[in-house]
Here is the input.
Amino acid sequence: MTAEAVRARQRRWNLDDNAVRNLGLVGVLVVLVVIGVVTRPELYADPTWVRNNVLTILQQASAIGVVTVGMTFVIVGGGIDLSVGAIIALAGVWSTTLATQSYGALGMIFTALVVGLAVGVVNGVLISYGRLVPFIATLAMLVSARGLAAQISGKQTQVSTNDTINNLATTRPLGIPLLVWLLAVVVAAGWVLLNRTTFGRRTVAVGGNPEAARLAGINVKRHTLMLYALMGLCCGLAAIMLTSQATSAQAAMANLYELDAIAAAIIGGTLLSGGRGTIVGALFGVLVFSTITNLFAINNLSTEVQNMVKGGIIVAAVLIQQFRYRSLTQLLKR
Amino acid sequence: MSAGTESRRAGADTVLRLTDVVKTFPGVRALDGVQLAVRAGEVHCLLGQNGAGKSTLIKVLAGVHHADGGEISWLGDPFAPATPQAAMRAGIATIYQELDLVDDLSVAENAFLGHERSRFGFTRRRAIATSTREILARLGHPEIPPHRLVKALPAAGKQIVSMARALSHDARLIVMDEPSAVLAHDEVENLFRIIRDLTANGIAVIYISHRLAEIREIGDRVTVLKDGRTTAADLPARTTPTRELVGSMTGRSIEYLFPARPAEPAAGAPVADPVLVVQGLTRHGEFVDASLAVAPGEIVGIAGLVGSGRSELLETIFGARRPDAGTVTMDGHRITGVGSAVRRGMGMAPEERKSQALLLDEPVYKNMTLASFAGFAHGGFTAARDERAAALRTADLLELRPRDVDRPARTLSGGNQQKVVVGRWLLGGTRLLLLDEPTRGVDVGARAELYQVIRGLAEDGVAVLLVSSEVPEVLGLADRVLVMREGRLVHEAPADELDEDTVLDLVMAGSLLEGEPA
Here is the structure.
């Protein structure tokens, strides 16, 4: 089929590139499920197990999903944040100190959100007003935030004794875990924010062509700062979600979350150079990764193999993306 | 090392001949029938206004661009270099206007960049240094150490390194694109000495300069380009009258269709207060003490060459650059940055549409509302439908083609992209429009439309400040013309009191004076 025919078909079905990519990711999910069915048919024979397994996948995707939404904003806005795992660790540790726990569940939630926001603001100020390259600024934050988390916790695992927090991970309103509801709300809010608000429009403009945005009167620096602040806030929320799942927090928590979040955003169709990205794609990216993790878990396979497969998927996704983009631009040149 | 070791060729031998060479870019015919014949051992000068096609022409010779039509013969054989390396191997070296040096490499490494001498993959540092020292000595600059990093050299030194690179190839033809632009006066003398040395060895030189005096001094023959065509070829460089050269540069091959100016206001009619007042604006090294005013409904044009500081002046007025001295006021309010400029009703269509104005992958309507979408929004939520409708109305006003505001901006032609940028400011209720090279890369038909649009805006009371290196455009479109030269506004007059030759004389006069021996 010629490229023109593909485009004609896309037009007929009213599909844009993003929809095509998302359909592709759904296809990947289907393939993964099929592999699961083929490898463990006895498990998939039990409908209750299947239902619970899907909820497990979603629950495992919840915290990283929230981070990926924030990451999508940062990358679309032309930046990158390598410090998200470290911010989560710092927020998690800070909110589970004995002193913080004495203020109850709301105190802990408030602390996690404020710590996340504050670290995000520091990142943003360094990048937009200090003119540090985002890669460097957040790399420095990655090291120092985890260091501070280790300092605060004395390298000990801090157990949460707050039942309200611990129950967040186990309550199931309408049969669906609260954390999954939370992810759904964040994804929906992120979609609206990116696609339907002035904030989202500015994000695309700042990432797509900062000079054009500046000359159109958009305050690029302030907006960049706000993007990192939003990222920090997402990390604070993710810290609470992870703490409730583990009923504890430690300086090593959320390890390599930055890589998972960036990878999920990228295979979801977010352009690493900024200016283009979708929240729905990012969600699918997260789901693909957590489904793979689950697939390996039910087959009792090692996480080492799992990491190699993840790496392969990232490379494949970006290659496909580049190929599609190239064929599209060639089409336009003709 | 030197190409001169070959038998000295007779001066009349034509080494390079271009016949009807054509090069098109999307929406532009950059070269549209260029004729050029260069002999061995001569200095052949290329003369033309900005945008005449000189840079494209040398890039075709250097293998950066490929000609779409016509014939190029080099040493008697057809010539179509696929890559810059191929052109260099064939013996054509180019010294670009923007020096293409790597700051963090040494002088020697830069001179031999791309054809490093190596043995088993290891660079032969000593051999390269020795050769570089020889070349530098030949260039009259034995004092430049081959191991010095290029970034530690002054501008003139970098120019020498760039020339050393050209000489490090066994070049039979060296193309120099405004080599004197960054040189002090005595350095220019040295440059001429080097050029004479080269030509005495039978090497041909294509010399591009805006400075007529230099062309008189060093040139043998002159070929003039205008709108991508050769308008005069092989004129004797020393004896051709200036009037004839300037005439060939400006002799119009494109009919510009300018809308009529409004009738003169009746005598005694109240003159509107200027909306924009600029006083003593200065940015060191860019422009000095610029003062001007623009009234509602008035089109003021600034004529000047690239590098005269006109674009910098415009961006400073818009608040995108911080002035070292002076003030910009809109209706008496100080402009301190882009934010306040836009709030006060200023809009700018910058020189580089693609890199400074457009989100190429975003739809047209989002590009049009880039400066105003917050005004359409309700409580932070964008109103795409309202934006689309408003963009469509503006598109109709500007006769945007295709009339589809959902199409990515990338897919539009240059002229229509420019309409999108201008349209952006119409949506914002702009009262002062700054236009930097509004018709660059815009084809002739679309130009006439843009002129009509700009004039129409002025009739609706919008003040327009226009910068263009195309003198006829400034003269035809503006009510009042300011001439800018080397960072200064040197002349101001109503457009109908000026003609093209006068403005060109003013624009280039400083260059002429500077190029003359003291």
